[in-house]
Sequence to fold (288 residues):
Amino acid sequence: MYWAIFGIFHSLFRAFFAEINRVYKVDGWQLSFWHASVAVLVLLPFTPFMDWPADVNFYLAAFLVAMILSVGVIIQLNLSSMNKGRIAGISIPFEATFAALIWIAVNEYMIDYYAQNMVMTVGVMSAFALVIAALFFLRRSDMTWPVFLVVAPVAVTYAVAGVVTKMVIPVNQLVPAALSFVLVNYIVMTIVIGVVLLLKGRANAGLVAVPMMKAGTMTGVFSAMAYLTFVVSVVFAPNPGYTSLLAALVPVWLMWYHELRLEKDTAKPLAGLLVAAGVVLLIIATWV
Fold:
C-alpha cells in the first residue's frame, strides 16, 4: 500500500503549497516562476541518484506534463492570492474521476480486473461517490459557475498528466526515474513561466521583493515534495485516479489547520470527516 502512504503525504504537502499564497498574497505569475526555480535547486543535489532513460518518450512526456502543470500552478497560485486557496479542492473530483476513467480506457485489462474483483470495485466506487459528495458539501459556497469554468479544464489536464506519468515511469527504477522526471518538469516550467513573465512585463522589482522570495522558497520546497510523492504514488497505485482522490484531503488538512490557528473557516467539519472516511474506504477496498 505504498501508493496510499505517498498519496497521503502528497495531499499534505499540496495543502501547504495551496495555503502559502493565501497568507502572502503575492503575484501568482511571479510566484509560479519562483516556485519552479526553487524546486530545481532543491532537486539538483540529487542528480547523482537520478536515472536518465534512453526512451525519448520519457522526455516528451516530461515536457508535456510540465506545460500542463505550468498552467495549473499559475491558476492555483492566483486563486490562492485572492484568499481562495481552498478552491483548489474543487478540481479534485474531476481530476480523480477523469484520471480513473482514462486509465481504464487505455488499459483494456483493467475492465477484467474490476469485473473479477467485484467487492473491491463496489468499495472503490463507493469511496469515490462518498468523497465527491462530501467535497461538494464541504464548502458549497465555493462552487460557482466562473470557478467551475476555471478549475474543470485544469482538472482534466491534471488527470491526463497523472496517466502519462504512470505510463512512462518504470517501476524497477522508480525513485531514480521519478527524480529525473520531476527535475525535467521543473526546468521546463522555469523556462516557460520565465518567458511568460517577460512577455507580460511582469519581470519587475516585485520578483525580488522579500515577501515574494519567502513565499517562493516555501512553495518551491513544498511543491517539489508534493510532486515527488505524487509521482511515486501514481506509479505504485493500481489506478492513478486513486492518488488524485487522496488529494481530496487537501481542503480537510486546510480546515483542520485553520481550526488549530483559530482562523475563520467556512468548511463543514462533518463533510471533512466524510472525506476522510471515503479515503479510508478506498484504501481498505484496494487492500483486500
User: Anything to note?
Assistant: The chain is about 80% helix and 0% strand. The radius of gyration is 18 Å. Residues 2-111+145-241 form one domain.
